[in-house]
Structure formats: structure tokens, C-alpha cells
Amino acid sequence: MKNRRESIFDEVIDRTNTMSIKYDYAAKLGVPEDALPMWVADMDFRSPQCVNDALAERCRHGLYGYSDASQEYYEAVRNWFFTRHGWEIDVRNIVTAPGVVFAIHQIISALTKPGDSVLIQRPVYYPFSSAVTKLGRNLVNNPLVNKEGHYEIDFEDFEKKISDNRVKLFILSNPHNPVGRVWTREELLKLSEILVRHGVYVISDEIHEDFIYEGHRHTVFSTLSPEIADLTITCTAPSKTFNLAGLQISNLVIMNDDLRRRYKETVKQSGYSQPNLMGILACRAAYEGGSPWLDELTRYLSSNISRTKEILARDFPGVRLTEPEGTYLLWLDFSGLGLSDAELNARIEKKGRVWLDPGPMFGPEGSGFQRVNIACPSSVLEEGLIRMRRGLYE
Length: 394
Known about the structure:
Elements: H1 21-24, E1 36-37, H2 49-61, H3 71-85, E2 94-97, H4 100-111, E3 117-120, H5 127-134, E4 138-141, E5 145-147, E6 150-152, H6 155-165, E7 167-173, H7 185-198, E8 201-205, H8 226-229, E9 232-236, H9 239-242, E10 250-254, H10 257-270, H11 277-289, H12 291-315, E11 320-321, E12 329-333, H13 341-351, E13 354-355, E14 357-358, E15 369-373, H14 378-393
Parallel strand pairs: 1-13, 3-4, 3-7, 7-8, 8-9
Antiparallel strand pairs: 2-10, 5-6, 9-10, 11-12, 12-15, 14-15
């Protein structure tokens, strides 16, 4: 990329033979071993130096016994959300978990019974569907409406699905994975009014909230009203923001005392207790010292998105980018090529040697799409796009 200053994020780091799911398990997952991985949502960037320093200091100490989060940890979490999102949290309402997907399973178990209806909005992060069905709940879908590449919510269908199916719980993706929408305050207010009217509990998955692009603003769902806060469990984590997924740490914010008690009781029954020591240290360090790193990263990702747009417009006839408002995951529409999903995947993966997430894994509404992770050095991004073009058009 020309006329751009060198960035710390330009470094290409060899991640092979590091037990990386993204890089080391292609053959096991039926993918060509030489396929360039641009699929699962972790980044090809080192975490901030403040995180690495905190972990190194503990390694020098050399003791890794039973541990738990300190008051300073909870203060760091609270301060991050107040500073970055204007969200005031009482630290007593913060509950740690090893991950958001784990938490979603536990929340569903805590707040619903087998046979109860749980509502999602496909195409959406696939663990939502699997959590609902694996736990024996009734999956209800309020499909997002794709209007010329811009996804919107069908509010009339949303309320009808709740009424017709006696929905007990709604899982919100905010910002939305994979379509990249940063829901506006007005859209979220409409949702909240319907949910309060029907007394529906809410899991608000806000794990991508720190990746918001110019012209958009993240709204924390539970801040819309005391009534919606009373129904909502907000799921957050430093894992996407600072590339810490392997350290198994996330934070839930549960305002309602009874919901918090029910969630904690369900987690106890699973056998889980204290969070990972290294996760605690990394989260605190990132939230206390990682802001400058994140600001530079967001600018870098914006540049990657701009470059992707240029290359798609020039070299990918029939392919359409869903305009990203947030996240580092792009939602590409290949339906204009007239290929089946199997043909599309074969062209990209087997011929082009690029590993993406096929759209149908996010629900039938994802047919004709692929999800692309652009949180990588720009040189890797361009190599991936060159390979994709070769697989599709040569």
C-alpha cells in the first residue's frame, strides 16, 4: 500500500506451530493446509505491550495457584466502559466468565426451560443457534432484512414472533456479527420497547463494541432505560479488542439482582469457579493501558477496509461488500456470480487457497455470502484478495 507510514501492525508474524486454531488445524477441519486463513475472529497482531509486560511479570514470579479477580480488576473494567462508552457500572454488577459463548449457554439454562422459545436474528453468529438447540429450547428467527446491502430489522415481524411463540429470551448481536451493523439508538429503542412490553429477557452480546468506524456510535443496550436494564445481561470481553481469546476471560454486567443470582447459581452447577489467572492480568492491563494501541489499530483496520473496497471495485465484478459500520469482519455478497454455495466455497478455498467462513454457517440467510477477517497486515490482506480473485475468475 503506497503513501502510508509504516505501522506496528504491518509485521507479518508466523503463527504456525503455536497451537493456533486459525493456523494449525486446517487439515483436521478439512481445509487445504496451504490455505491462507482469514476466517475465525482472532487477529494476526500481537497484543499491546502493556499486556505482554503484565504476563511476563507474573511468569517471573513463577507461581500460578488458585486466583480470583481483585477490586483493582473490577475498577479497570468499570473505568474502561465509562471512558470508552460513557457507561456507568456498579462493580458489584460485574461477573467474570471464561468466555461469552460459555456465558450464553449458562444464561439460557438459568432463565429458560426446555421447550421455551429463544429469538435470534439471522444471519448471525452461529453459536447462538447451536446454544439454543443443544439446550433443547425452541429456536425462533426474526431474519434481518437486506435492503440493497444494508441490513435492517423487521420490527413488525419481531413483535409477532415474540407474541406467537411466547418468546422468553432474545439474543442481540450489538454490533452485529457478521453483517457489521452498529445498531442506532433509535433502532435499539424500538427493540427495547417491544421487549419490555412483553417481558422478554435479553442477552446483549457486545463483544465487538470497541470496533466502531467513523460516522457510527455504539449504544450499550441496557443504558436505554431502567426497564430494559432490568431484563438484560450484557456480555463483554477484552478478547476481540486486544486479541486475548486464548486467555479465557470475559465480563458480564447484570443489573438485576435476581438474574445475577440465578446466573451464578447455574454456573456453580457447571463446576466452574474462578477465572483464568492470566486472563485476569491481561484484561486489567489492557483496560488500564491499551487505549493508544486500540486507537492505532482502529485506524489501521479502517485503512484495510478502504483498500478492500478499492480492490473489490476494480477486480471483483459481481461481488458486493456490505458496508461495515463496526467489527473487523467483512460480509461479502458473492450471489451476483451465480454460483452455488458449494461451488463458491470450492472456488475460494480449494482453487484460490483462502480459508473464509461460508455464509450458510450463519443461517440459510447467509447463502451466497462469505465472512472475511481483515484484522491482518495489509500485505496479507492483499495476498488473500489476489488469491480469491484467482479462484473466482481465472
